[in-house]
Amino acid sequence: MIPYVARRLLMVFPTLVGVMLIVFFLTFTIGNPAVLLVPAEAEPADIARVEAALGLDQPIPVQFAKYLGRIVRLDFGTSFYSDGPAMQLVLSRLPATLQLSLAAAVIAVMIGVPAGLFGALWRGRAADMFLSASVLFGMSIPNFWLGLVLIIFFGVQLKLLPISGMGTIKHLVLPSITLATGMLASIARLIRNDLLDVLGADFIRTAQAKGVGRAAVFVRHALKNSLSPVITLVGLQLGALLGGAIVTESVFAWPGVGRFILQSIERRDYPVVQAATFVLAVIFILTNLVIDVICARLDPRIVYD
Amino acid sequence: MYTRLRGLIAPLIFLLIASFGMAQRDIVVGADSNGEHYDPQRGLSGSAHIMMAMFDSLTRLDPAGNLQPSLAESWELIDNHTWRFKIREGVTFHNGEELNAEVVKLNIDRLVTPHQTRASVGSSVTGAAVVDAYTIDIFTVDVDPLLPSKATNFLIGAPSLVQDPDNDSTAFNKHPIGTGPFKFVKDVPGEYIRLEPYADHWNGAPAATSLTFRIIPDRSVQLAELISGGVDFIENVTPELIDLVNSSGRAHVVISDSTISHTIPFRLDVESPLQDVRVRQAINYAVDLDSIIANVLSGYATPIATVVLPGVLGYNPEVTRYEYNPAKARELLAEAGYADGVTIEFDFSPAIGELYNTEVIQAIARQLSEAGIKLNLNSLEYGIAIQRVYGDRTVNPAFRWQWKIWYNDPDSILYGFYSIGGSAAFVGDQEIQDMLHKARYNMDNAERAQIYSDLQVKFREQALQLPLYNLKYIYGVSDRLEWEPRVDGRLYFGQTTFVD
């Protein structure tokens, strides 16, 4: 397994280079940051001076060479707006995002997995119908709307929980529930359908035939087999969540990476956009790697090739 | 025994009430985004409210927009390239350093360093020289009648931070030091910035015990925080929510005039039907603005006939709007050879134009279509819109725009758009160019006012724009505060008092 992991880790580099290439050229399509940095009454000469100060007046191949030279040293330059090191600015937002995403993932798994089991065990009954309806609701409800409804109900009317911001554990409740809803619903549905498939499989009948108890069949044979798609799903979703839950972060004024990236794109703050994309790419790639390894441990059918 | 107890309890209750009263003197402002930077030489945009709390400028505008002394007590024109400012004595920075002419010079030196031109607030300034301890000369390229007004943006930072003109903004971003009514305590990016009053402020210490700008990007959430007491102040309350705020028992709305002109300028430098003055006039005749203001904006706007607003230098009250006359519009179109209708490409950004901007544009498009003018609406992201206007100048022949008029002077909004070679010059009329130039480099205010007044007549005749309206600012303010709005829309809490 170690050579497999090593090989996968080596693959990280070409992937990152590809990502950074795309990001570099995409930043040029979103416009010139200089016009946004100067006040409205600035004259063309002012804009030209700002371009020169930022190095944006140089030919694109030259800018590209400099950019490559910087990122191999993990130097992403300084923010056009605050002069702070871009990478440091991005990393300073990461803990808030980690806290929110992990809380959401925990809620989604803790409720989604039992809900899915419940649906599979009581398939076709009223409880299952209710569950399926809730799942549909959970998957289709937009985050910004759910967030606002929760705020109005728990924050403004009942005054039980803080409306926005970060600080105490109470501040975490509403945003993590909002963020967890979609993921929770996907997990519940996936585990229910998967379990139903597995419960009909030959090896389950074999296990029952050889006299294994009902509970043992369910936990040791069925559940274990249907876990790996769930882990893959959680991994992918977690990767996406770490990229910043832009909508949820905006609604709850959560100071995470997602909102910061959005703001930086709006301001054309290239160095921050590039540093953030780099961090997210690394997180996504590593999350995927960890998930693949866990799935392979769980499922002997997966071989490291 | 009881008397004794009473003797003990009474001061306790007093203390409790007193401390409660103290705690009630914090001001929390719900802000859209955190400050971009806290560097006084990099301009105010984005961080203006926070910067104005921490820094003073050489001159300042009062709430009505009139020029007043601030760190400079008086100023006079010495010659066509020199303004002399008398600096206020006895002013100290938050770190105890003293203000004098030398410190102002350090700030001006840093302002004109090439790499600091990002701000370009002082684009006409070339340098400064100390005359005596409290007198300084500021030099300009040409005669600049607006320099004392522009000096409202010359924020003065502490000498220890501006000494090296090549310093970037890092030191200021870590710990900004000015002479303003509030001093820096803590900045948590994306969460809040907290300030506390500066007891030795030259204009008296503020009444608040602290001033916090909390970052809440979503405006509905800002409102939820206001009516449940989480914040004391928000901007941008929409008209239909005014009653909700006023009946919350915690806050009320404050409505104020603004100096923002909302308009639709036309490009004459690219091929389009708009190059024909009759088509531009037809557009002006075909829009029933009163109905749009009443129905879309709930009446919270004033129609304008010219982008130069009442109260601004050179405002011409004799310039009127084209009356609503769709039949006349059709007639003019037919004369111009568009009897079967005409199609105009139109750019707008939902982020430019504020309140119900998109709805207003849809209403205008509908009214125009009834007169045979079809607007092809292109919605642009904010940065792209700015880029198309000021950057590569690829904006469509008609576009939605808004201008904020600074220091009650029209130069800043007209010069860039109507002088030839201006950053967003799309008209290219030599006569207009000459008039703008003559007004810009002129110390005679009466003459300047006359030029701007004449320009508005020309603008109307040529129908260079479809002028829209001037929107009101609608703020949500805690019932605890007595806060005064400003026509420039900046939030200033140095003079805010509390209802006791």
Name the features.
heterodimer; A: 305 residues; mainly alpha; 13 helices; B: 500 residues; four-stranded mixed sheet; four-stranded antiparallel sheet; 23 strands
Describe the fold and architecture:
The complex is a heterodimer of chains A (305) and B (500). Chain A has helices at residues 2-29, 33-37, 44-54, 60-71, 86-121, 126-140, 143-157, 169-199, 202-209, 214-242, 246-251, 257-266, 270-298. Chain A has 305 residues and is mainly alpha-helical. In chain A, helix 1 packs antiparallel against helix 13 (270-298) and helix 9 packs antiparallel against helix 10 (214-242). Chain A starts with a helix and ends in a 7-residue tail after the last helix. By secondary structure, chain B is an alpha+beta fold. In chain B, helix 12 (357-370) links the parallel strand 15 and strand 16. Chains A and B meet through helix 2, helix 3, helix 5, helix 7 and helix 12 of A and helix 7, helix 13 and helix 14 of B.
